[in-house]
Amino acid sequence: MKIPKQIIGIIFVVGLVIFVLKNSFIYISPGNVGILINMMTGNIADKPLDSGFKFKLVGYQDIIEYPIFMQTIVLSKASEDNSNYNQEINVNSVEGQPISCDISLSFELDPSKVPNLYLTFRREIKDITQGYVQQTIRQIMQQVVGNVQVADFLGKAKSGIVNKVQLQLQEELKDYGFVIKQFTINEIRPPEAVLSAIEKKNIMAQDALRSKNQLKKVEFEAQQEVEKARGRAESILNQATSQAQANKILSKSINPTFVKYKAIEKWSGKLSEIGSSDMPFIQQNKTK
Q1: CA-CA distance, 288 to 284, in Å (whole number)?
Q2: Pairing mode of beta strands 25-28, 61-67
Q3: Which of 69, 149, 209, 238 has CB atoms 3.0–4.6 Å from 31's, for a disulfide?
Q4: Fold of 71-190
Q5: pTM exceeds 0.85, yes or no
Q6: Which residues contact 89 (CB under 8 A, 6 or more apart)?
Q7: Longest C-alpha distance within the chain, in Å?
Q8: Nearest in space to 65 (alpha carbons), one of 26, 122, 38, 22
Q9: Where are the domains of the chain?
Q10: Using one digit for the tens of pLDDT, what is the confidence trace for 247-264?
């Protein structure tokens, strides 16, 4: 049975309409924006498209979905089973010592700058982070760590280095819409010889500090004994001074009248107890 041309035409038109409608609408997921591209001229719209259903002219326009939610890239040493994918950061300290680092970087994209990002690189965000962003991290890490001694990098200077690298990454990548949320150095691997030398130095420093504290303890205890001795000496001197002053006052107060008075106080009234003419405190009346 031969199908009429009119039916064939209707089927063709319906199929074309379905095709056009299906490809004219695109759904942009939350956390993403759309980049509207003019396929005839290659121009890119300055304003990104928000999430939701968006319409495009089939064959004339295209919409590329681009993520703006927070993402994290991790650059670390590969496992033994996956050594071909080693992405650790290798830098040199100010002494020239080689150092390997594992780092992570979390970022978001400023929606208003996404069209310029795509216009500059014409790549997906994954390709950009694996290329330009990784290379920028390596360069800035070398610039910052290259001015620091390896011992300081492992210790007191690490937090400052992390902050400095994060600030410089933000400054370098901001024009492309990158908003750096967090930069972390997860692990630092200096040469074994350097670690051994640092460990010995730390042990010596701890021993010196222990000896210093012990010396301070001995000096403190000795000072306490000196203070105790000084206190005892001052106490004895004060007692002697007080006694001498008392004796001086007492010696000044003793005179014949005072001696007679004390003798009278002790006399019981018996004449027989008067044994010396040195104390004629009783005078008898003569008979006329």
Answers
A1: 12
A2: unpaired
A3: 69
A4: Tetrahydropterin Synthase; Chain A (3.30.479)
A5: no
A6: 75, 100, 101, 102, 103, 137, 138, 141
A7: 198
A8: 26
A9: 5-67, 71-190
A10: 677 676 666 666 666 667
